[in-house]
Amino acid sequence: LYEQLLKHDTPAVEIAFRSFNRWVEEDWGFNYKNRIFAAPYISLCSPEFAVAELEYALTNGARTVVMRPAAAFTANGPRTPADPIFDPFWARVNESGITVVVHAADSGYVANGYAAEGFAATFEGADRPSINMLTMERAIYDFLASLIFDRLFTRFPNIRIASVENGSEFLPDLFRKLTSTHKRIPGFFPEDPIETFRRNIWINPFWEDNPYEIASLVGEDRVIFGSDWPHIEGMPTPLNYAAELKEFPEATRRLIMRDNAVALTELRPSV
To answer: Are the CB atoms for 57 and 30 separated by under 8 Å?
Structure first.
């Protein structure tokens, strides 16, 4: 939430999240008894800051890092997250094999007059439907599409991206757009962008999303269970989600409920 409010003040962003990461590490640690893994926050407000915080995370045992699904706001203006100026950061991610979690946040999307603004500043909820309810899907849609369009995974094929608390309803349309773009610009992508997506990106659906549809799109080994109770994205008894997977074989249920996420908390250094 706070990166959006501070985005035009790069030093303030750096101070805020450098302090946050050190507080988490000092108070809790990034790896508590090899069972609970806190994720240091990474801002791409500057390439140097992103690399420095990643190194701090790795040095202190982090298994994942987290960022918001948004364009990077630097002192020289906005950039896509896979802009070549960030290659030193992504190269280190690729080399270390740490997972980058892209978590729902205030990504700066606006309703263009269709609804009131100001979520990050006021923390106001919504007691009626509005266009603002659609912007969260738009943020992750654009973020993941930009990684594919900017050919991040061609340069750094060992990167693992986990989309968390963004849901999955955006996926069918994103896949259609990736397919149509591939056809319209032949030769731009070194391979089918859908296959790139399936290899490098994991999806955490909301409990109300269709897990069978998602598994058919990205593969059973790319779907990860998660719970954020008492937020609305979670369930009071998280393991009740297993009932939503009853039509999958036992091996697939285990992948979705446990093994896929466990694998993402293990460093996978490039060879």
So the answer is: yes
The predicted-structure confidence for 82-122, as pLDDT tens digits, reads as follows: 999 999 999 999 999 999 999 998 888 877 888 877 655 45
128-143 pLDDT, tens digit per residue, is 787 777 777 899 999 9
Note whether 142 and 150 are within 8 A (CB). Answer: no
Q: How many helices (H) and strands (E) does the chain have?
A: 12, 6
Contact status, residue 241 vs residue 235, Cβ threshold 8 Å? yes
What CATH number is attached to the domain comprising 164? 3.20.20.140
The reply to whether 155 falls in a domain is yes
Query: Which phi-psi region, left, alpha or beta, contains residue 123 (left: φ > 0; alpha: ψ -120 to 50)?
Result: left
Predicted TM-score (pTM) above 0.70 = yes
- Give a yes or no: residue 212 inside a domain: yes
Question: Does residue 165 sit within a domain?
Answer: yes
* H helix or E strand, kind and range, residue 160: strand 160-164
DSSP secondary structure code for residue 241 in this structure: G
Phi, psi of 64, rounded to the nearest 5 degrees? -140, 160
